[in-house]
Amino acid sequence: MVTAAVSEEAPPGGYQFELIHVDAHGNFTREELIRRALNRARLRAAMLSAAEDKDVSGSFSVPVHYSPKTYMMELNLDSTVSGTKMLAVADTGSDLIWTNQLKECIGNPSFTPTNVSCAEACRAVHKQCTTCMFNKAYSGGKNMTGFTGNATVALTTAAGTTRKQEVSLACAIEWSQKLLPAAAQGIVGLSQGPMSLVKQLGFTEFSYCLRDPLDSTLRSPLWFGGNAQSAAGGKDGWRTTALVEISTESSQLPEWAKNDYYVELDQICINGKCSGQLQQQDFRLRPSHGGKGLMLVDSGSTYMHLDPKIFEALKRVMREALGVKVVTKVVTNGEMNCFDEAPTIEPDLVLKFPKADMSIPWASYVEKGEHGFCLYILEGASILGNFQQHNVSMLYDLKKKELSFKRVVDCSSTTL
């Protein structure tokens, strides 16, 4: 079994990071950024639909970047390769930290992990690897094979000082070509799983505020621990809903999916026109004990997805509220959902969760481009993607099992 490193006592103020856009140095136009984001959203949805895991044997903050899958964060690793920096996808839908940057964990071409014992395997790839080998499999034949090990990471505290802490991670020796964006060297899991960075640092709260994904030069703050709420915009103005446990059996998902973050979706409204109560049987993602249909809150997905019948409900609301029909248009890289004519108003889209409404501005769900007015919303298992989360402070409380959020004018108004 894979086990997490024992966390030292966390600093009272926690840790801070910064998230970085993967397209920051690509000189892409707005249209190119939208097209790249659309392709990422489709790939991510396909991976989520068939992912499976196979196991073979105070506060901090960090910067976040937008990648072909999501935003990325930088970790400083102390290893036999001095000064190793890991730029990795920051993913609330993953429960593992893994990197392909620890060179001492990369074996030679003649080494076949499946043909030797774990102990022999570790000796073959040198030093820092432990005696546990595993494979993480994704849809479409994508996978990552590696060994568990420990590494020391250098973390920036809320007070601005540096503190080192040991974490357990996976040293990748083999991974599928399209599993990572070109700029990333791994994934940092931020789910509720025991191997995630959140759990290994010993915190029960973390928060982030994602800046405009179509301005790839901007960086976004991520906080762990004691300052997660105050740094994300103070104590006032938050809306809170429960995080709900999923039934992996009825949702046809692997057991580890219970570690992800889900909220119940009651209704969808625009300009006072609402869908009415959405029915649980119309959702793929369903709770473990009764309740309503679920939406996955995922920093690793780009656009919002809605189950087919929920998407049909949205189209009816748009017809009533905006006086337009949603039609499918064939474009260069697939299909897009667009209006049949220009709307005369540009209201927010409101997602009604139990005890909390999330208002999504027009520009975060509709784009006026070469194909007319088209939606940043796709069909699939219901997901709240990072595009709809930008300029929203998101606070996850793992102890209370709550998600809190509040819209800000600009994430730069929060503290890093």
For the secondary structure, the number of strands is 28
Percent of residues in helices comes to: 10-25%
Mean pLDDT: 77
Unreliable residue stretches? 1-7, 40-44, 46-59, 65-69, 106-131
Beta-strand proportion: 35-45%
Overall body shape: globular
**Main sheet overview:** 15 strands, mixed
Structural class determined from secondary elements: mainly beta
From the alpha-carbon coordinates, what is the Rg to the nearest angstrom?
Answer: 21 Å
Distance between the termini: 37 Å
Number of helices: 6
Features:
6 helices, 15-stranded mixed β-sheet, 28 strands, 416 residues, mainly beta, single chain
Topology:
Elements (H helix, E strand, L loop, with lengths): L14 E6 L9 H21 L1 E3 L4 E8 L4 E8 L5 E8 L5 E3 L18 H8 L3 E9 L5 E15 L4 E14 L10 E4 L7 H5 L3 E5 L10 E6 L2 H4 L7 E4 L5 H4 L10 E3 L2 E4 L2 E2 L19 E4 L6 E3 L1 H15 L3 E6 L2 E6 L9 E5 L2 E5 L5 E4 L2 E4 L1 E3 L3 E2 L7 E6 L4 E6 L9
Parallel strand pairs: 5-10, 6-9, 17-26, 18-25
Antiparallel strand pairs: 1-4, 1-8, 1-12, 2-7, 3-4, 3-12, 4-5, 4-8, 6-10, 7-8, 8-9, 11-12, 11-27, 13-28, 14-17, 15-16, 15-21, 19-20, 21-22, 23-24, 27-28
